[in-house]
Amino acid sequence: MTVKKKPKGAARARARSPRPADAPVRVIVLAAGVGSRMRSSLPKVLHRVGGRPLLDAVLDTAERLSPAETVVVLGAARARVETAIEGRPVRVALQDPPLGTGDAVRCGLELLDASDGPILVLSGDVPLLRPETLAELVRKRGAEDLDLAFLSFRPPDPGAFGRVVRDSRGRVRSIVESKNATPRESKIAEVNAGVYCFRAEALRRCIAAIRKNPLTDEFYLTDAIELIARAGGGVEAVEIPDWREAWGINTRRDLAAAEEIERRRSVERALDSGVTVLDPATVRIGPHVEIAPDAVLHPFVCLEGRTRIGEGCEVFPFTRIADSQVDAGAAVGPHCDVEGARIGPRSRVGPYSRLRPGTVLEEGVRIGNFVETKNAVLGRGTKALHLAYLGDAEIGADVNIGAGVITCNYDGENKNRTEIGEGAFVGSDSQLVAPVTVGKGAYVGAGSTITKNVPDGALAISREGQKNIEGWAARRKSKKAH
Ligand code: UD1
Ligand code: CA
Predict the structure, then answer these.
(1) Distance 464 CA to ligand 1 centre (A)
(2) Closest ligand 1 atom to the C-alpha of 100?
(3) What pTM does this model have?
(4) What is the reported pLDDT for 23?
(5) Which bound ligand lies closest to the C-alpha atom of 92?
């Protein structure tokens, strides 16, 4: 049998009222700071980690909690940041001038309605948090009916982070900013991640009570911890075991460190899901990339955007693939650049190929060195192995594109289409001046400039006939000797 302790005073009163634990969370993201330590004309939250702006990373994570509403607090750079987050289900609060994190939260609160339920405060410059960690923070605050739960961590060097001050019994008493810390406090290893889950009413009370810090003239949100602890309200830190998750970005050095953490993390995710990564130190995988098991990634491979790599694919060294789909068993690289393309099953691309947006390779297509494709569909089993440009083209199955073939798709004003029928053979160094059609099973002789449609099964040839002059070389030599 378990015996429940009777809750005391205020806690007893709260215990009687229905708990807001299950109420949907509302989110305030702080992103109005100047970010002067970045020494950049770009707002700090628009700098990228893993190819994604910091603010996007934070909003993506917050969205996973299905918040009832999200308010982003922006400052002087509002217009620029707003454009970057257009289309997201968030509202923007303005804080100008930036008077500190406490003042920023006050601005955000003005936009939220007065309803109960937990309020999650996130920092726009803490981009590596996992949704599971945020969910745990919200769960803990609810389960223990706390006024505040916040995330703490122990970085290798506590540096500029706020220190978590505890009493002799280990209870959280306050957060002291490093600028304000005594030498003794500076030595504290546990620091504040800048991520908080408040009871709405406690947050409102604190924000009204926070005073300007005399040293910096800023309103510190972190003063809320001491205010709550003094009033006897529940406040707890949830320590993140892996400090990397809580890494905050104030400087370019911090940004570079975050990039490496994120890079390493995405490689490890791939490894755990059954992908072979030959050199984990040099491979980059973006946050929205999906890779099926038994794919093999060689050194210096870069996968970006909404890319999907199918089962058993192999990506060879120095290859970048962005916003593309590579189907099972295909091989790409080395030294390829692929963007907005679809590579069909068992196709082979590279070395040195460039697939541009709108490229669709069906099954078993082969693209070789110095071949560029754009807005081009290549049918099953078609080959273009050397030095070609295929743009605005519809090419059937089992076509052979010889070395040096060019679709002349642009007449200076318009883009025109080239169609090549199934089983056609386009000889080397031919130009197909679009709009033009090469029929099914037709042949184009090497070195032809094709300006008229070629019927099915025909041979088109448009070069001058060859003339051989017998004995010419010997006559030239003897002339030189005299
Ligand atoms: C803050 C915390 C510190 C914590 C660290 C974690 C305070 C006072 N300190 O310090 O305890 O260890 O984060 O990363 O909160 N912002 C505004 N308006 C402002 C000021 C800041 O919106 O007036 C935003 C910033 O854009 C940023 C976030 O709040 O996204 C944090 O501000 P920042 O100045 O970076 O605080 P830190 O010094 O890192
Ligand atoms: Ca910061």
Answers:
(1) 74
(2) 23
(3) 0.89
(4) 81
(5) 1
pLDDT tens, residue by residue, 255-278: 999 999 999 999 999 999 999 999
Low-confidence ranges of the chain (pLDDT < 70): 1-22
Please name which of 49, 27, 32 lies closest in space to residue 249, comparing C-alpha atoms. 49
Q: Token pair of 10, please?
A: 């205020």
Pocket of ligand 1 (CB under 6 A): 30-33, 73, 95, 98-101, 103-104, 123-126, 160-162, 175, 177, 191-194, 220-222, 248, 250
Residues 6+ apart with CB under 8 A from 305: 51, 286, 288, 289, 322, 323, 324
* Nearest residue to 164 (alpha-carbon basis) of 248, 257, 229: 229
Contact 133, 242 (CB under 8 A): no
Which amino acid residue places its CA nearest to atom 11 of ligand 1?
A: 162
386 is a catalytic site residue: yes
Alpha helix stretches (DSSP H) within 76-215? 78-84, 101-111, 131-143, 183-186, 200-209
Cβ atoms of 112 and 71 within 8 Å: the answer is yes
* pLDDT, tens digit, 9 for 90 and up, residues 113-151: 877 889 999 999 999 999 999 999 999 999 999 999 999
pLDDT confidence of residue 22: 65
Taking CA atoms only, the protein residue closest to ligand 1 atom 19 is: 100
Indicate which ligand has the atom closest to the C-alpha of 222: 1
